[in-house]
């Protein structure tokens, strides 16, 4: 049989799980409980309950000279400590808020404080997030000097490989912001037929059309390149 017992110690201000030797006398237990519960030894009345919702105690630890084992204390029972003279200690005062002074404002004082608050000051003077929103000026269109019908060369991410074609469109689009240049490639290196997301911007064969940003377009005298296939390639 185990010589120790696990119990829940409950007092007006505390609740904790503790382990005690069954040979510990009630008097010795009270000395330990004073440190835990704050209830002076002389004021302590200790009872054992079967559970938290039990209305009546199983037994009262009435004899300071008797060991815990004498009272048949078992694991996980409730060891309830009552303060017989709470007027001489602080027992219960930590959890009793009924006597705590409440800070109250009259309606007039509340309104005055609201008027004097930093928030109200910022609202009156339109500071920070209360400042008037400046009307956004419409974005100026990009200045792009790329004529429709001009021959061009498009830079690619592949070294020494550039695609040639003819400029077919310059302007804004519905699929992205800013100015875009629509190009009809000489070869089927493109991504569309001059239309994107159902809207047509120019006419060309499928996979010959592409839209690029103006900085990738180089206008000049770029003739159509002939593709020569080696005899070994088909």
TrEMBL record:
Keywords: Chaperone, Cytoplasm. InterPro entries: CAP-Gly_dom_sf, CAP-Gly_domain, TBCB_Ubl, Ubiquitin-like_dom, Ubiquitin-like_domsf. Belongs to the TBCB family. It comes from Ganoderma sinense ZZ0214-1. This is CAP-Gly domain-containing protein. The keyword Translocase does not apply. PANTHER family: DYNACTIN 1-RELATED MICROTUBULE-BINDING (PTHR18916). It is found in: Cytoplasm. One of its GO terms (molecular function) is alpha-tubulin binding. Its main location: cytoplasm. It holds the Pfam family CAP_GLY. GO terms for cellular component: cytosol. GO terms for biological process: post-chaperonin tubulin folding pathway; tubulin complex assembly. It comes from the Eukaryota. CDD domains: Ubl_TBCB (cd01789). Residues 171-213 form the CAP-Gly domain. The keyword Chaperone applies.
């Amino acid at each position: 049989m185990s010589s120790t017992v696990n119990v829940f110690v409950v007092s007006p201000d505390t609740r904790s799980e503790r382990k005690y030797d069954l040979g510990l006398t009630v008097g010795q237990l009270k000395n330990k409980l004073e440190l835990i519960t704050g209830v002076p030894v002389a004021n302590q009345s200790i009872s054992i309950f079967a559970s938290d919702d039990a209305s009546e105690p199983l037994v009262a630890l009435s004899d300071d000279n008797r060991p815990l084992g004498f009272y048949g204390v078992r694991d996980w029972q409730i060891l309830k400590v009552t303060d017989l003279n709470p007027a001489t200690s602080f027992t219960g005062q930590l959890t009793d808020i009924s006597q705590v002074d409440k800070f109250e404002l009259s309606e007039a004082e509340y309104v005055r404080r609201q008027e004097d608050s930093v928030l109200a000051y910022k609202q009156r003077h339109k500071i920070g997030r209360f400042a008037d929103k400046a009307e956004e000026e419409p974005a100026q269109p990009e200045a792009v000097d790329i004529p429709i019908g001009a021959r061009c060369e498009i830079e690619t991410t592949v070294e020494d490989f550039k695609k040639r074609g003819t400029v077919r469109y310059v302007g804004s689009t519905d699929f992205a912001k800013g100015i875009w240049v629509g190009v009809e490639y000489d070869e089927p290196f493109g991504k569309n037929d001059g239309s994107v997301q159902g809207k047509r911007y120019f006419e060309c064969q499928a996979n010959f059309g592409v839209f690029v940003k103006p900085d990738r377009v180089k206008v000049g005298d770029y003739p159509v390149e002939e593709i020569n296939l080696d005899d070994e390639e088909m």
